[in-house]
Amino acid sequence: MDKRRLGRVGIEVSPVGFGCWAIGGPFSTPAGEPLGWGEVDDDESVRAIHRAIELGVTFFDTADVYGAGHSERVLGKALAGMRDQVVIASKWGNTFDESTRVMHHQDTTPEYVHQAVRASLERLGTDYLDVYQLHCDTTDEIALPLRDACEELVRQGLIRSYAWSTDTVHSAELFAAGEHCSAVQHEASVLHDAPEFFALAERADLASINRTPLGMGILGKRDPSRPATGADIRSLPPSWLRYFEEGGVPAPEWWDKVSAIREVLQSDGRTLAQGALAWLWARSPRTLPIPGFRTVEQAEQNARAMEFGPLNDAQLTEIAKLLTD
Predict the structure, then answer these.
(1) How far is CA 112 from CA 31, 47, 109, 308, in A?
(2) What domain count does the chain have?
(3) Which helix (H) or strand (E) holds 257?
(4) Closest by alpha carbon to 71, among 270, 293, 256?
């Protein structure tokens, strides 16, 4: 497959990136509600990252709050000595306590941007980020100074570009007006089409970084017989996590949709997850899905989706029909 380009800044990356939320391990709200994906084996995470790089993955997306700093530390450990081979994206906006692994609130002041980026660089063991992303929603009046702060970080050489992780097109457009904005990160999957964002990416010359490309696992191996448990956010899903219900099992209405399109997604020898990634590649040449991972096996499956490439037009049409029947 052709490489993807991070918008107008011209950074080239692999067609699939790896989302590093899951490898951060457990963290929670002050009330103890889980925000991570459960327990992790850091050594396995490092092995999975190394295997992904061997298979051609060059883009890794994390956030300072994932695992309350732990995801950045694990990613930094894995990438030691390989910084020039990869493109790293992180995010800011949420405050947290590393010692207790609790996320507290948001800080959207320009002063905090400068503090947060330096903390991320220390945890990642690097002196610059390729993409720095605002990780919360806010008003135009608050966002504009943050965009200016990101431009200042570019001038200082601490970041190469920036973006907003949002599901509001207007917010993405606001950041897109900045000279060094390279992308918009938003939800997108075969279960959640995002035509307005794909159009914006094309119009504004941005990359479309797709989070939840596997529907939080419902387009992977997570099925009704394998509920999420313990410190996994899917075991007690917040309202925005629509694909799962309390108890960590797929919500029936969404599982029915997956069942309806499974055969098409698995055509040509793909796994279900590989088919879901192939759907996103077929939707737009700007898409850059970032599936999560916790094991070498998951890393290999996600990376090898590139060997199959995008779905064809006939498969896209068939899926669209099955989802509306």
Answers:
(1) 24, 33, 5, 43
(2) 1
(3) helix 252-265
(4) 293
What's the rounded Cα separation, in Å, for the pair 166 and 211?
10
Nearest to 303 by CA among 18, 41, 79: 18
Question: Closest Cα partner for 87 from 157, 159, 148, 149?
Answer: 159
3-class DSSP assignment, residue 134? strand
Structural domain for 269, as ranges = 4-324
218 to 37, 99, 122, 221, 248: CA distances (angstroms): 14, 32, 34, 7, 11
Q: Which residue has the tokens 């993409």?
A: 131
Buried b (16+ CB within 10 A) or exposed e, 226-253: ebbeebbbbbbbeeeebbbbeebbbbee
Q: From CA 119, how far away is CA 121, in angstroms rounded?
A: 5
Residue 60: beta bridge partners? 18, 88
pLDDT digits (tens, 9 = 90+) for 267-293: 999 999 999 999 999 999 999 999 999
Identify the CATH number of the domain in which residue 159 sits: 3.20.20.100
DSSP β-ladder status, 4-6 and 11-13: antiparallel
- pLDDT tens digits for 126-169? 999 999 999 999 999 999 999 999 999 999 999 999 999 999 99
Name the nearest CA neighbour of 293 among 277, 270, 309.
277
Residue pLDDT, tens place only, 216-252: 999 998 888 888 888 999 999 998 999 999 999 999 9
Those residues with Cβ within 8 angstroms of residue 322's Cβ, 6 or more apart along the chain or in another chain: 260, 261, 264
Rounded distance between C-alpha atoms, residue 99 and residue 34, angstroms: 16
CA atoms within 13 A on the CB side of 126: 30
Largest CA-CA distance found in the chain, in angstroms, rounded: 53
